[in-house]
Amino acid sequence: MLLLGGQAAAQAKTRVSLEEAIQLAVAHNPTLQATRSQIPQSKAEEITANLRPNPVLSWDTQFIPLFNPSQISADYFNTQAQFDLGLGYLLERGRKRQHRLEAARDQTSVTVAQVSDAERSLIFNVAQQFINVLLAESNLQFANEALKSYQETVNISEERYRAGDISEGDFLKIKLQLLQFQTDVSSAMLARTQALATLRQNLGYEAVSQDFDVEGDLQYKPLKLNADDLKATALRSRPDVAAAQKGITLAQSQHTLELANGKRDLNTSFNYSHVAGLNTGAFFFNMEIPIFNRNQGEIARTQLAIAQSQSSARAAEEAALTDVTNAYEAVHNTDQVLQLYSSGYLDQAKQSRDISEYAYKSGAASLLDLLDAERSYRTTQLAYRQSLANYMIALEQLRQAVGVRNIP
Question: What is the pTM of this model?
Fold first, then answer.
């Protein structure tokens, strides 16, 4: 159930930038908060691992004449009954407690790295959805502008139809084409609403108000990137790689623990007895003889787990290198696509539309030419905006692949 009472401070800002959105998500995303709870849970297991065995208190009373109550007397209890009181303690051999604590701490280190990796994935999801909102708003702005511009064309065409310059059929075709522009506006509004809703889910519903908006624009920022530097940074910085490497240390500490568990513990106890008027003491010691069970199975399993963790670490490193390669190529490819648009296609599409519109209004171009130029211009503009968004997402994917926000 959402807590609405303490939202005033978090909801004061209704427009958020990308970095602010990331900060809000890291602080408020419920899935990440649930994942973070694994860290204190793991630290609590360290407390459990470091606990010493409890001493054992035992006592007994023997030879009580319950069925001959007439014999019960102080003298009987002193000379005939027996009373025993004992205190025992388990002596752990092989430094088991220290090895348990070491393994628990190594598990906490792995958990911390895994939580950091979950945060890395969340940051990418937030950035990607943030860019989707920017794209939806850009498309909505363009759709409104295109609708307004085409509405003027419809108005002029209506005047020409009334003046007899164009036929009723041509005027109806122009008017029917207005439906496409109106549909584009409706679709863009829906896309924006859905993108904002998904972004709010990633941020956490209590982090922002219902009517929040994003701050920023689709923009192209060329970067000079070195693939080798990016790969080296990924191997140093990615938390999933760190988690896999720490997993080797964890597997080794678990193996050491199982070696210690193979040593048999010593049970010791001291008993005080009162028998036949005498007070005596006795020491007892017992230990398993490790003939059959020497913890061979767990020792062998953890030995194999070390090799498994080493393979997993290599796989994580190779996956990181592959991610960087793919993301680097995606940035390079989308950059080339944007260069194509910037080299003249955008201007050419606009000029073609403007020329066709002017020629049509002057009666020097056909309706088909006007509609075709409008369609090409709209398609080019939407494709350009999508390419800008793809480029920005590719950069965010590269940041995720490298594991840092500031790409070297």
Answer: 0.85
Q: Per residue in 244-275, pLDDT tens?
A: 999 999 999 999 999 999 999 999 999 999 99
Domains in the chain with CATH codes: 37-402 (1.20.1600.10)
Angle CA 297–290–89, to nearest 5: 105
Q: Quick one: three-class SS letters along the chain?
A: CCCCCCCCCCCCCCEECHHHHHHHHHHHCHHHHHHHCHHHHHHHHHHHHCCCCCCEEEEEEECCCCCCHHHCCHHHHHHCCEEEEEEEEEECCCCHHHHHHHHHHHHHHHHHHHHHHHHHHHHHHHHHHHHHHHHHHHHHHHHHHHHHHHHHHHHHHHHHHHHCCCCHHHHHHHHHHHHHHHHHHHHHHHHHHHHHHHHHHHHCCCCCCCCCEECCCCCCCCCCCCHHHHHHHHHHHCHHHHHHHHHHHHHHHHHHHHHHHCCCCEEEEEEEEEECCEEEEEEEEEECCCCCCCCHHHHHHHHHHHHHHHHHHHHHHHHHHHHHHHHHHHHHHHHHHHHHHHHHHHHHHHHHHHHHHHHHHCCCCCHHHHHHHHHHHHHHHHHHHHHHHHHHHHHHHHHHHHCCCCCC
